Amino acid sequence: MSPSSRRLLGVVSGAVVAGALLAAPAQAAPPAPVQDFLADRLAGLGAAVPTTVMVHGSDIAAARAAVAATGMRTVTEYERIGVVVASGTAGQVEAARTEPGVTYLEGNTPIEFAQETSNLATRGAEAAATLTGANGLPLDGSGVSVAVIDSGIDPNHPSFREPGGGSAVVANLKSVCLLETTTTPDCVVRVPSVVDTDTLSAGGHGTHVSGIVAGRPTTLADGGRVQGAAPGASLVSISTGAVLLIVGADSALNWVLENHEAPCGAGVPADVCPPIKVTNNSYGPSGGGQFDPNSATVKLQRALAAEGVVTVWAAGNDGGDGSAPLTNPPGQDPTGGILSVASYSDQDTGTRDGVVSGFSSRGAAADPSTWPDLSAPGESITAACRPYLPICATGLDFRNGPGLLDLGTFNTISGTSMAAPHVAGVVAQLFQADPTATPAEIEAALKGTAHRFTDGAAYETVGGYATSFDKGAGLVDAVAAVEALTAG
User: Fold this and answer.
1) Which domains does the chain have, with CATH numbers?
2) What pairs with residue 356 in β-bridges?
3) Contact of 343 with 356, CB cutoff 8 Å
4) pTM of whole model > 0.85?
5) pLDDT score of 286
């Protein structure tokens, strides 16, 4: 269902009747609009049954006052964008619509994970081997943290082991915002660095995605080598669990907004725990949907862009033929530095003239605002895994890691979930090359230099770029993007 808001048809008139000596009584402002998903949920909800709602206010004080006035229970807050997440009955939610300063009410919509790596096709491996960042180190994403919002991570996996000891995972967090026992607004909590949050979630998706972002170069038992797109970047994992609802994911984005400058806490130097410059979001609603500028997700990612953080989205795995928009709605945001990534298949060749994956979500051919921004390898991607976790078990090519006990610790999985982290890793490389770049400049460099592989829909010029409804501007090219970003 479309997440667009249902708006009332009535308008408040400010006109004065000609000849009247006194102004007409002021009419009350119409109730705040309600997201379609929430409206449908409220219609079928028992009178005393609570539901989770995001109360958007003109500021955080207005949202807090509305929650308090209606007797709802606060779950958490997104203070910077004026949103309080609360639990309340249908009657309380309806009453909140007329509270002063309330601008929108949004439900806890369900979302799901959008499911030899092709760093050759993206030229990411070439960039790491031949180029140098502004910090004087090989261009491997070092000095940049990537926040991976997903099912969690196994920080002890061989893919994340540093050569001299330690882990690529500099911060390990878990969102507990969906637990009814949670009574504090600080519902994204730190957990010990060694805790395997992916196993706690019974997931596996997050470990695989994190390995694609920043897995360290690893030689497998069979002699094969794998590495992430940015094998020197630091990882901040925020586990939302294996079963996703939007409040858990939004709370993770809100945590990044509040902590991106010092993700390990005050006093931890940036050379130990670098600032977060990009988030990876390989989840979304099934079947795409309509872009909702009023949603907390969009407000959060726009606030992140304003503070220098790029947001990367998996486009979705719903295929399509261009007749309808099936791409992930928040990825449709036109704000510079918010990227939607389609899946490219190199057909196991490592080349740059492959095809658009059949499962990759297409935008509506008639509406460029719904098109993906870029493509990256998302088909048959080998990365970190644990064979006993559900997502990992869907792969068909278990491979053993370097240690005697690393049995089946790598597997091959496909999906735009695998395409997005390739781009997140390349973004980390770009920020290493130019730490002063803005998110909009990063997007311009990526889209302006993408390799226009020819499979699929024809390219059209939209907004100054050649782009298409199935693959966006084409296959990301890390080397060309760095050259464009740093030219002059």
Assistant:
1) 31-108 (3.30.70.80), 112-486 (3.40.50.200)
2) 344
3) yes
4) yes
5) 85
Q: Look up tokens 């670098």; give the residue.
A: 274
pLDDT tens digits, 82-115: 999 998 999 999 999 999 999 999 999 888 776 6
DSSP string across 221-283:
TTS-EE--SSTT-EEEEEE--SSEEHHHHHHHHHHHHHHTT-TT-TT--TTTSPPEEEEEE-E
State pLDDT tens for residues 136-166.
Answer: 999 999 999 999 999 999 999 999 999 888 8
pLDDT digits (tens, 9 = 90+) for 329-368: 999 999 999 999 999 999 888 789 999 999 999 999 999 9
Contact by Cβ (8 Å): 184, 251: no
| CA 377/CA 354 separation, integer angstroms | 10
Cα angle for residues 161, 167, 173 (degrees, 5° grid): 135
Q: Under a CB-based contact definition with an 8 Å cutoff, are residues 53 and 88 in contact?
A: yes
Q: Closest Cα to residue 249, out of 294, 203, 296?
A: 296
Helix or strand holding residue 146 (H, E)? strand 145-150
Residues in the chain: 488
Q: What does the pLDDT average to over 159-176?
A: 92
Which residues, other chains included, contact 231 with Cβ-Cβ below 8 Å and sequence gap of 6+? 128, 140, 141, 214, 215, 216, 217
DSSP string of 196-230?
Answer: -HHHHHT--HHHHHHHHHHPPPEE-TTS-EE--SS
